[in-house]
Structure formats: C-alpha cells, structure tokens
Amino acid sequence: MISPRTLRNLKKELRSSALAKLGIVLVLAMILVAAFAPFIALHNPTNQDLEENNLPPLGFSRTTEETSSEMVNGSLEIVNETVRINATASHPLGTNSLGQDVYSRAVYGARTSMMVGVLGTVLAAVLGVSVGLVAGFYRGRVDDALMRFADVSLAFPSLVLAIALIGLWGRAAVDVPDPFVALGIVDPVRAAFGLPTGMPDSFVLPGTVIIVVGLVNWVWFARIARGEALSIREEEYVKAARALGASDARIIGRHVLPNATTPILVLATIQVAAIILLESSLSFLGFSGTTLSWGFDISQGRGYLSSAWWIATVPGLAIVFAVIGVNLVGDWLRDALDPGIEGEGGV
Amino acid sequence: MTDEILKVRNLTTRFFTEEGQVNAVESVDFDVRDGETFGIVGESGSGKSVTALSLIDLVETPGRIVEGEVWYRDADLAEEHRESHPDAVDGDYVDVRQLPESTRRWLRGPAFATIFQDPMSSLNPSITVGEQIAEAVEVQRRARANPRRTRSRTQGYGLGRLLVDSVVPSRDYVSEESHERAVELLERVGIPDPEQRAEEYPHEFSGGMLQRAMVAQALAGEPDVLIADEPTTALDVTIQAQILNLLRDLQEEEDMSVVLITHNLGVIARMCQRVGVMYAGEVVERGALEDVFQNPVHPYTEGLLGSIPDIEDPAPRLSPIEGNVPSLLDSEMGEECYFADRCPKAMESCLHRIDEHEAESTVDDAAHHVRCVLANREYDESEALGPEAKQEVITDD
After folding, report:
1. Quick one: B278-395 is in which CATH superfamily?
2. Which of A77, A225, A236, B235 is found 20 to 30 A from B73 (Cα to Cα)?
3. Residues A177, A64: one domain?
4. Contact assignment for A243 to B105 by CB distance below 8 Å
5. Residue B218's closest chain A neighbor by CA?
6. In A236-306, which residue ranges form alpha helices assigned H by DSSP?
7. Can you tell me the distance from the alpha carbon of B364 to that of B362, in angstroms, rounded to the nearest whole number?
C-alpha cells in the first residue's frame, strides 16, 4: 500500500521540518494520554470533593473573603477575614468548582476528543468519498443530483446543523467499558505508584455527536473525491481496464480510489482537527452526551474566569495543542505526499 | 466465406457536442480475417481511434454509436442467443452491438483485447505491473469458467470488499496460478527477469517495456482479435520496430487477428495483409495491401503515398496533399465527396454523395473497394472542377 518512495518522502520531509516533528510529538502524546488515561490521571475525574473546590494549580494561590461571626462581649460581631488558599500537591493543576481534579479531567477529555475526532472523520470520509467517487465517475445527472445536495448541506452553518440534528435525535451515548479496568490491571498499578484507586470502569462515547459531526463534514470529502474521480476517470489506464472487461465497481475501487488517496488522507487529518473543535463547541454549548469533555469543562469554568482561571484555561490549552498538533501532521503529510503543492507549513 | 472473425457493417459513430453533431465515423465497413493483420490508416482526426473504440463499444459520452453492426464469429455465443436475440444471430456470427451489456463486457478481454497509444499512462501507477496483469488473467479466467456470462465473475469483489482491499492489501482475489501466468506472460513478451519485474511499479519501467507489459495484459484473455491503437506512436523508433516484431511473432503463435491502427504507412506496409484508408470518418479505400499501395484508385490514397520520402529515388520536394482535413461538424458537411476540395482530380460528378464501388483487384480472394467515382471511370479533364468551384465546395454549406 505505502510504496518505498512515499516512505522516503515522508522521512525526508520530517527531517527538514521542525514543525512536522512538533506536530508528531503533540499527536503521539495525545494518543498515548487518551489510550492510557486510567494510568496517567491522578484522580477519578468525576470524584467530587466540595471541601477542596477551586484549588489553584501549583505555584499559584487564591485569596477568598471568609465571613465568620463571633460573640464578642455579648454582641454578635461579623468578621471579614481574607483567607489565602494554597495549592496542594495532589491536585497539581487545581480543582474545579465541584472539587474535581482539573488535570485528570483534561486527561480523560483527550479520550472524548480523540474518539469523536477519529470516528467522526472516518464516518465523514466513508460517506463523502463514496458519494464523491460515484458522482465524479458517472458525471451527468448523478453528479448534478449528488453535488447539488452537497452544496445545499454546505449552505447550513455546520454548528447550527449539528445542534438541529442533536435536537432531533437526542443525545444518545454509549457506555464503553474501559479495557484496562476490565482487565483489572488499573488498581494494582495505581496502588503500586501510590495513586488513589477506583477509576471509572466505563467510558462514555457520545454516539449522536459522532454521527452528527460525520454528517456535517462529509461534504468536504465528497468534493475532493469527486474532483479526483473526474480527472482519474479520463486516465488511459481506466480506459485500458474497461477494454479488458472490468466492471465499474472494480474500476472505482481498484483504479480511481487508490490514486485518489493522497488528497483524501491529507484532508482527513485536517478534518480530525476541525471535528475536535466542533465537538468542543458542541459540548461547550451542552449538546454532548458526555461531561468528560474539554468543551464542557470550559463552559464549567467560564463563570469562574476571574476567581479560578485554571478551570477553563487547562482544557482550553489542551484543545489548542491538540488542534495545532493535528494540523502540523496534516501539513507534513501534504508536503511529503503531494510534491505538486509548494509547502507553506514546512520550515 | 467463413474465415472472417469480424465483419463490421455500416458502423456510424457521432459525437453530440455543444458546437453541434460531429460525424466521427460514417458508414464504415470492413472485414477482419482469421490470423491476418488488418490495417486502418489515416491522418489525425480521420476517425481511426473512434472506430477502434466503437468496435469494443467504449465510445464515451458525448459520443454514441448511432448505427451499425459488428459481427463476431463465435458458434457457442450464436447458439446461446439464437432464441433470445434472434436479430443478433446470423449463422455462426453474433452482432456484438445487439447483445446484452453483460455479454458485451464478457467479450472484452477473451474476444477483443486492446492496446492503447500511450503505455506510460495505460497502467495504474499505484499497482505493480505483475499484479495488474495477474488481475486481468484472473478476471478472464473467471469469465471463461462462467459460461452463463453473468456478472458473477466479480463475485467476492463488490465495492465494500474493494474499499477494504484498498486499505488492507490482500491478494486473495487473484489466485497463485494467475500470478504465475502473469510472470509467464511477461516472459512471453520478452521482458528479462520477469519475476523481478513483476514486482515493480509502472514508473520503474521504460516506455518500450511498458508497451510490452500492455501486450502481456492484452494476451491475458487469449483474445481472438487484438486491437492495437497506434501501439508505437509514443515510442522511440528503435523500440517501435521491436514492438512490431513482437506483435507479429505473437500473432503467428497465438493465431490471433490484429486490427492495427496507425498513421504510419511504413508500419502498415510491413505488418498488414489488408488495409483500409480512412478520411473524414469514412473508409475511402480498402482491399489487399498490394492493391491499395500499388494500384491506389482514390486520389487521397495516392496523395498519402506520394507524401512519403523514397530512399531509392529522393525527390527534391515531397508532394503533400494541399489543404486541411475538413471539419467533421455535421452542419458544415455537404453532400459532395469530402475530399473534393483538396482533390487534384475533382470533377462535377464528385458533387453528390459517393458510394463504395468495387475496383479492379490483382489479388485473388480480396475485393478492392473505393469510395470514389474514379473506381469505374477515367479522369476527364473537361469535367474538372476549377479552383473557384472547389472554393465553393468549402464555403457553400
């Protein structure tokens, strides 16, 4: 599938581009964090502890006015006292208003973002590429009908369309058992490192969100695939295949699709980033089926921006790094696989 | 006579473009005999390639085969369709154009194979050469094993499977025998070290090697008729000779018929037993090579032969045919002979539609047909069209 020449180009491009390296590091880090979240998180991200709410991150402190009443000489006196709350080592990035560990929530949020980003992109790609290949290969009325439908769906703002679809279908979510917890290796490992045990035994996959982001973003794949199919169908080897008696399905699958993979792959990486952002927007607005999401955490921290900025800032930075990382990887793939486009992303 | 593998009658292909109707191929008749090479020669835009594509029914929109019959000899097919498609069967012959689409597709490969002009772009750059040939072998092996000629030769190879295959490479569809046969075929067409070369991608082959690979792929179905559409045009002169030799050797060994399409008269003279000369979508002269090349009747054929340099008798100047190929737009084509405005022997009788006439033949068992009034009369100077009259031929429609 991947020819040695392609591999060479990928390596060459990687050597010459520092940004590509950075992108790969960021994406790999995110994948590892998402996969091994139960080992990396410090606390169960859903555990609440109202005694320890709004704790600041290490190196910061927070002051709060505490009011107490005291009996002084027979009369009740109200005393306002400024109390300084210091960070604790067990919550290095602080806690939110419910006393949940901000760092652990960010770690688990990576899972949601990755799952929605990758599965949503796969769905969008399968739908869009199928439609686009058929439209471009058959042209004529089929093409007109499919692509006008695509144009119409593109006319809706994607966030509004997504909210409308979620409103229609509800916020269905699937509980996926956490494989590491199910294997029973999480607690012993955590205990060995002296970490609190009792991590969540399942992970909420926001099913509706995945389907919706796929349905909202398929158009981009359809357009790219159609463009490729339009040019590849005119290639001599397609004519040659037909002269040897190949069926349309075979020509599309064997000759058109493999020669269209490069732009589709590049688009797919960039779409992962776009879908991560879309998922964050949806959960920020409260349209996701899960509460373990960066967007949801930002919306939680929004009210505390002046007093506890870290609640929204930490997941916000996570989104920034994830999107930058994925986009840098996309640039790298584009520069390496498609020498026709002069790289803007390369350094 | 039953030694014709292919009889083409009244084949007419038109393109319906935005500028109007283009008559690319007009009432073409010719026969191809068993084991012979039939040449089709003509200048660019005379309809040679469209004729080839029409034979295998691969004309793409906006083009359409308007009418005509392509009779192919296959006793089994004829027997099978005698009841269901009585119009499409005549003795041992079937009219390919009237058969159902699935049968027509089935015929591509095992009956007709095609080699195209540009070998560089005729192979899929993302699949190894061996794999592509093996796939052609496999498809056609399954086609032969499936006498009902249904679509099931692609069974187990639906779009879903194809999508999976494009992600997960697998060779399950193509059997081990087909891979061995592909290597055999590569060896047949003179590719050194075929096992090694089969694993390589098209960009690692030279042009001549790729054309050999194309020939190997065409041989995969053991075709009765090999259609070679300008097989040597994109190649170096030295490689051209090799490919032509290869085609001739293979033709003898395989007992195939070859339809060779070219604009190169030298190639025709060297390869063909019979030849058809095309001009403006029509076959203007056809017959045995000796008749057409030594005693040409049509002034266009004469003109073509006169524009080749002769090494024995180097003329100071070649005598090219004056003027240009006429427009093939229907609205701009008149009733008169299409060659009249360029013809040195145009006469008044050329101003109406010319049918095919039988001309004198020096070869037994080979008719000589000419689409020209000169077939059965002599040129008469008193009737000649002057330059003004010729000019009118161009402008009056």
Report:
1. P-loop containing nucleotide triphosphate hydrolases (3.40.50.300)
2. A236
3. no
4. no
5. A244
6. 236-243, 248-250, 257-259, 261-284, 294-301
7. 7
Q: How many CB atoms lie within 10 A of CB A338?
A: 15
- Are A297 and A174 within one domain? yes
Which residues fall within 8 angstroms of residue A164, CB to CB, at 6 or more apart?
Answer: A156
pLDDT tens-digit profile of A264-288? 999 999 999 999 999 999 999 988 8
Of A237, A242, A253, the CB nearest to B159: A253
pLDDT tens-place string over residues B305-329:
888 777 777 766 777 787 777 788 8
Q: Point out the residue among B112, B154, B220 whose CB comes nearest to the CB of A247.
A: B154
According to CATH, the topology of domain B4-272 is: Rossmann fold (3.40.50)
Task: Report CB contact under 8 Å: A249, B105.
Answer: no
Number of domain units in chain A: 2
Cβ <8 Å between B108 and A243: yes
Interface of A with B (CB under 8 A): 1, 3, 126, 139-140, 235-237, 239-247, 249-250, 252-255, 257-259, 261
Q: What is the value of pTM for the model shown?
A: 0.75
Instruction: Report the alpha-carbon distance of residue A81 to residue B186 in Å, rounded.
Output: 92
Q: CATH number for the domain including A49?
A: 1.10.3720.10
Domain enclosing residue A65, as ranges: 59-90
Residue A344 located in a structural domain:
no
Answer for the pair B301, B284: CB distance below 8 angstroms, yes or no. yes
A84 exposure class (CB count in 10 Å sphere: 0-12, 13-18, 19+) = exposed
Residue from B137, B146, B166, B204 to probe the interface with A (highest A Cβ count within 10 Å): B166
User: How far A249 CA lies from chain B's nearest CA (Å)?
Assistant: 6
Q: Given pLDDT bands bounded at 50, 70 and 90, which one contains residue B166?
A: low
Contact B221 A244 (CB under 8 A): yes
Do A318 and A299 reside in the same domain of the chain? yes
